[in-house]
């Protein structure tokens, strides 16, 4: 009797969030990659570099999301050489959007693009399904459903950098505790005029809530 | 036409019938947001007020808080037909039991009656219930009986299609030892957030506080709901 194992596509069904503050952005994500019920990577960093001060957060199909990020990374490098300076966040988001829209039937990944540029300061763009929209903050991935209420209630305009970082960590922590497809550690990237700072917060250092 | 209080169940006996408008052929879904919170001395329960048939809102002022005894209420997401039938049966059984005992029934008893029925008929029913009330022995209690027929007591519980969006808010904002007013405020906020994000929830927020003294009902109209900065 042959036991055939069904191949499940690798998903980063996930929780990702990006928030603007005056002078930059903070991106956050969990670190779980699942294939069906199995966790195939529990420490994946879903915050991908597109350029020095532009990052994107990956969600959906792992392969699709990574490929889009790599393609845009290459296109942005070429573009920034052509214009002779750092690219705008809007350009990066547009490149992502173009790919997402053109291949929307074949791809199933959602990237949130966030970064800092000289002209617009900190900016967050969503590119879901091929639209392009700038928002003060954005959440995505399967875990985001559980924290819509929390982010709506807790987000305030004009938060400081530290407040944003705490807000992002709290959101990711809440989502990980409710969503089976999110978990592991929390990755944080803070981008401002000076550059990008990556941080990893281990499971036992994450904030806990009343039932933990 | 079977009324349904959660994610759609497509069982249309009539298809492409020209005698009925298209929206009337859809399964009625009252995709709900309900919640219940314990506090020292009682419970607070809340629900939205929207019943939908496809994209049409069939009732925008529904009362989804069902009394099953003087100090015990239940909230019923899931198929409305199923949960109505179960709730009626439990109301009857509980009334009988209370007369036999000659004193008010325990919330745990009510919750267990729901559980027995939901478990026995788990294949046929699509019913997830939240039972909340006050009794002399244990004070305010909230019991969740999800689909399948498990029973668990929790200090705070949310249910319905809109509940997904407020798990994070609930986890971060619930604190043990809140007063009745704080619980009412917490429920109002949570329901507002869910109604903003879930298309199947909306209307007014209906709340009820159950204590030893009885049931105090409150309605928070649409324009009186709390506003959040970016919403």
Beta-strand content estimate of chain B:
25-35%
Largest sheet of chain B: 5 strands, antiparallel
Instruction: Note poorly predicted spans of chain A.
Output: 1-6
Please give the alpha-carbon distance between the first and last residues of chain A: 45 Å
- Total count of strands of chain B: 14
Major sheet summary line of chain A: 5 strands, antiparallel
Q: What's the overall geometry of chain A?
A: globular
Number of helices of chain B: 5
Please identify the structural class of chain B as seen in this structure.
Answer: alpha+beta
C-alpha Rg of chain A (nearest Å): 17 Å
Structural class of chain A: alpha+beta
Give the SSE string of chain A.
EEEEEEHHEEEEHHEE
- Helix-strand pattern of chain B, N to C? EHEEEEEEEHHEEEEHHEE
Poorly predicted runs of 5 or more residues of chain B: 1-16
Itemize the secondary structure elements and their pairings.
The complex is a heterodimer of chains A (212) and B (231).
Chain A: E1 16-21, E2 24-29, E3 33-35, E4 38-41, E5 47-51, E6 54-60, H1 62-83, H2 89-102, E7 109-117, E8 121-126, E9 133-134, E10 137-140, H3 148-154, H4 161-178, E11 186-192, E12 195-201
Antiparallel strand pairs in A: 1-2, 1-10, 2-11, 3-4, 5-6, 6-7, 7-8, 8-9, 11-12
Helix pairs in contact in A: 1-2
Chain B: E1 3-4, H1 22-25, E2 28-29, E3 34-39, E4 42-47, E5 51-53, E6 56-59, E7 65-69, E8 72-75, H2 80-101, H3 107-120, E9 129-135, E10 139-145, E11 152-153, E12 156-159, H4 167-173, H5 180-197, E13 205-211, E14 214-220
Parallel strand pairs in B: 1-2
Antiparallel strand pairs in B: 2-5, 3-4, 3-12, 4-13, 5-6, 7-8, 8-9, 9-10, 10-11, 13-14
Helix pairs in contact in B: 2-3
């Amino acid at each position: 009797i042959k036991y055939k194992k069904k191949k499940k596509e690798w998903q980063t069904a996930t929780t990702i969030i990006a928030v603007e503050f005056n002078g930059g952005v903070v991106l956050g994500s969990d670190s779980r990659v699942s294939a069906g019920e199995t966790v195939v990577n529990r420490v994946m960093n879903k915050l991908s570099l597109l350029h020095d001060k532009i990052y994107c957060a990956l969600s959906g199909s792992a392969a699709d999301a990574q490929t889009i990020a790599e393609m845009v990374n290459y296109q942005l490098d070429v573009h920034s050489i052509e214009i002779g300076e750092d690219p705008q966040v809007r350009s990066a988001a547009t490149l992502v959007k173009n790919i997402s829209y053109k291949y929307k039937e074949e791809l199933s990944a959602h990237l949130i693009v966030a970064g800092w540029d000289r002209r617009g300061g900190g900016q967050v763009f969503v590119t879901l399904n091929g639209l392009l929209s700038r928002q003060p903050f954005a959440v995505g991935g399967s875990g985001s459903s559980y924290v819509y209420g929390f982010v709506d209630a807790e987000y305030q305009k004009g938060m400081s950098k530290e407040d944003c970082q705490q807000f992002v960590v709290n959101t990711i922590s809440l989502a990980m505790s409710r969503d089976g497809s999110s978990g592991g550690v929390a990755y944080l990237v803070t981008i401002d005029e000076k550059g990008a700072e990556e941080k990893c917060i281990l499971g036992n250092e994450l904030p806990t809530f009343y039932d933990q | 036409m079977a009324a349904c209080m959660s994610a759609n169940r497509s069982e249309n006996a009539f298809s492409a019938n020209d005698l009925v408008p298209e929206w009337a052929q859809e399964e009625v879904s009252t995709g709900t947001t309900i919640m219940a919170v314990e506090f020292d001395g009682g419970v607070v329960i809340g629900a939205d007020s929207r019943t939908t048939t496809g994209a049409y809102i069939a009732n925008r002022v529904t009362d989804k808080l069902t009394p099953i005894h003087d100090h015990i209420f239940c909230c019923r997401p899931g198929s409305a037909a199923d949960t109505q039938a179960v709730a009626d049966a439990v109301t009857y059984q509980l009334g009988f039991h209370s007369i036999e005992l000659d004193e008010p029934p325990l919330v745990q008893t009510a919750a267990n009656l729901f559980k027995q029925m939901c478990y026995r008929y788990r294949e046929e029913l699509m019913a997830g219930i939240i039972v909340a009330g006050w009794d002399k022995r244990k004070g305010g209690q909230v019991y969740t009986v999800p689909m399948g027929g498990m029973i668990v007591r929790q200090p705070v519980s949310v249910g319905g299609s809109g509940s997904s969006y407020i798990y994070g808010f609930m986890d971060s904002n619930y604190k043990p030892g809140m007063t009745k007013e704080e619980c009412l405020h917490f429920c109002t906020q949570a329901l507002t957030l869910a109604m903003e994000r879930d298309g199947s929830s909306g209307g007014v927020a209906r709340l009820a506080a159950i204590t030893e003294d009885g049931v105090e009902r409150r309605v928070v109209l649409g324009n009186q709901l709390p506003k959040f900065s970016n919403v």
